[in-house]
From TrEMBL, chain A:
Descriptive protein name: Ribose transport system permease protein
Keywords: Cell inner membrane, Cell membrane, Membrane, Transmembrane, Transmembrane helix, Transport
Transmembrane segments: 12-31, 51-80, 92-114, 159-181, 212-230, 266-286
Pfam families from the UniProt entry: BPD_transp_2
TrEMBL record, chain B:
Signal sequence annotation: none
Protein name in UniProt: Monosaccharide ABC transporter ATP-binding protein (CUT2 family)
A Pfam family of this chain: ABC_tran
Keywords: ATP-binding, Cell membrane, Membrane, Nucleotide-binding, Repeat, Sugar transport, Translocase, Transport
Organism per entry: Faecalicatena orotica
Gene Ontology CC: one annotated term: plasma membrane
SUPFAM superfamilies assigned to the protein according to its UniProt record, in alphabetical order: P-loop containing nucleoside triphosphate hydrolases (SSF52540)
Record Gene3D superfamilies: P-loop containing nucleotide triphosphate hydrolases
Amino acid sequence: MKLKGKERKGTSYLGILIALVALCVVLTFASDSFLTASNLLNVSQQISTNFLIAIGMTFIILLGGIDLSVGSIIAVTGLMMGLMMKNWNMPVILSLLLGVAFASAVGLVTGLLITGFELPPFIATLGMMSIARGAAYTITEGQPIYTFPKGFLAITGRYGGIPVFTILIMVVMFAVAAYVLKYTKYGRYIYAIGGNENCAKLSGINVKKIKCIAYVISGFCCGVAAIVLTSRLDSAVPTNADGAELDAIAAVVIGGTSMTGGEGTLVGTIIGTMIIGVVANGLNLLNVPQGAQRMVKGGIIVLAVIVDVIRRKRSQKA
Amino acid sequence: MADQYILKMSDITKRFPGVLALDHVSLRVKKGEVHALLGENGAGKSTLMKILSGAYVKDEGEIEVFSQKSELGNPKAAEDLGISIIYQELNLIPTLTVAENIFLGCYKMSNPVKVNWKAVYQEADRLLEDLGVDVKSTDYIRDLGIAKQQMVEVAKALSKDAKIIIMDEPTAPLTERETKNLFRIVKKLKEEQVSIIYISHRLEEVMEICDRATVMRDGCTIKELDIANVTMDEIIRLMVGRELKEKFPRIEKQIGDEVIRVENLCAGSRVQNVSFSVRAGEVLCVGGLVGAGRTETVRAVFGLDARTDGRIYIDGKECNIRNPKDAISAGIGYVTEDRKGEGLILKLGVGENVTLAALDAFKTGIHLNLSKEKNTVKEYVSKLNIKTPSVYQKVENLSGGNQQKVVLAKWLLSKCRVLILDEPTRGIDVGAKIEVYSLINELAKEGKAILVITSEIPELLGICDRVVVMARGKVSGSLSREEADQESVMTLAVGAEERGKQHEA
């Protein structure tokens, strides 16, 4: 049989990009307030948390793993930073650095559980999800922390109506992660391990190390997301980012990354977070009740995967 | 006499997007014959067999089974007509027992709810006994080696009372003895008037076991033959469409100093006190039966399995190899027998596979120079004559022979000095095999030390400079190229095993 040459990059997220554009067009007609600068800036701020953790989640899912602990890590990290800034009067910068370090360390523990004891990622991160959430309730005995220092709130503040630093953080995180995946040995190894762990091992790759680092990256992303979320809400509560892991996984999957690993792009994930964000925003503008919104979100996830499955089958037959 | 054909496929055409896979292909199989379907990979054999087993639907043409026109639109219809296929890639569930697998989907029931497990296991034991294999119906598939799993597949097809059995490369993973066993079964089935369509790249076997053959090339039927009236060379010429001068090309080369020496290697129960060495430019073949501990030995050398004892020297210096990374930096490359499971990352492109073990060469700081990588990959693609439309093509879309060349390219790029090849030509076609042999020759000429594990004795004799034979985890003998022949290798491979069994008894 003859083979047709196909470039791997570029084609895989074209479909969802079209879907995103179509969605925006529909919403523009359905609601007068959708296509306005202030609304779109709102959307960008609303998706920021999911955007940041979905970056880490992309690494994990490309490896063939999963991280259910991200929402809980955000909550406990937010409270830790709150304690440091408010109760212990530590400098903002130091508190944030320690917070991100703490979140990364939690990721490292998860990674070590998965590689050291060979726990399935689902189980290890399910455990960590509960531990971190429990810790969030414990450290302040369930009490929220609010009215943060001005310097901290400035991170998500708007300047001329634009959430400059939030967008900057998102862009930098995306650019660095995209670079790592495409232009570093580490990124290539992520795809290799997700594609075929045995082959990766045989090619001299230290699989455990790569996996551990991925969970640290996911933890780091949670730390950054905790800063953005806590600052935007001006409150750290144990229930923050409840269920965030599901949104992040949904974004990655909608973005075309295979749940079995080895295939997918960060650009796809970003489009995925945008689709979820735009849908939520659009449904809000159209005054659709919360219950119905969740049903729509679930439907989109399932639909996206169905489309992906069909696409893959077609490309295999061709 | 028209009725003597149990199966007639005429003018079968099948198109895939952009590809004409089958172009008016015909196949006629007589009752109770072993019919070989021959052709290089990509000739359309698999597509034709998938149509026959109902996995694909034909676009044009006619199929007659037992003189009745039939459409065979789905696997169930084919099965009901008595057509069974044993795929090259085994189709068993690892977590179930042998009996549960054999009768999967058609368990005998005591009543509408309860499975009659006793009957299922008894029937399975009977089938396995007929096959003469050392497998218990209560064994779990995951605990069986690939050869035994293959036998379970055969038993499964037999359990369906098939009148036409398609065997796709059934002997590829089998040893000589297991192959003989399979042939015994094939002959028995023939006596019972079962027809067998036999796909194999091993022409020696085809000559031995088959009555007639159909040769395919590039999606067309080339010729229908009586095996008794042709020679192997004629068949090869028909398959390849050109003359192949030598099946095992040889070149002039210098054999230099010792590169790798393994002393008293022990690893688990399958590798006991194994010692050998390979010199620069030398091709050392390791013969023996499947399960003799050959793969386990090289896995231990490569650091994949833990060594319990023994030393490994490269260029006279002892190397402490604890994992594949150590092995690669010591200059060892390992082409495994399981190409898809261990050798390649099917979802990734040709380029990413080729450079996987040598990414450091394209790195400045943390930055990978992708265009440099691409150029190097292109260079290796043309050097090894890998047929691929681009370096981005996913390797899962390449043929077996080209996939194997991708694996070879990976190790060449890693600048290894010792190259271990485990069954390097399994499941690849005649033309590609010769290319692999030529590559092995060239690499040896460049001064690499090459270790080849092969269960095909003609191949072993054809490419070796020296032979080591293993049996029951030990080296049972070493032969020079002059000393080695079919008999001496088999004696060492089997003899030691027989003696071992007597000692135990």
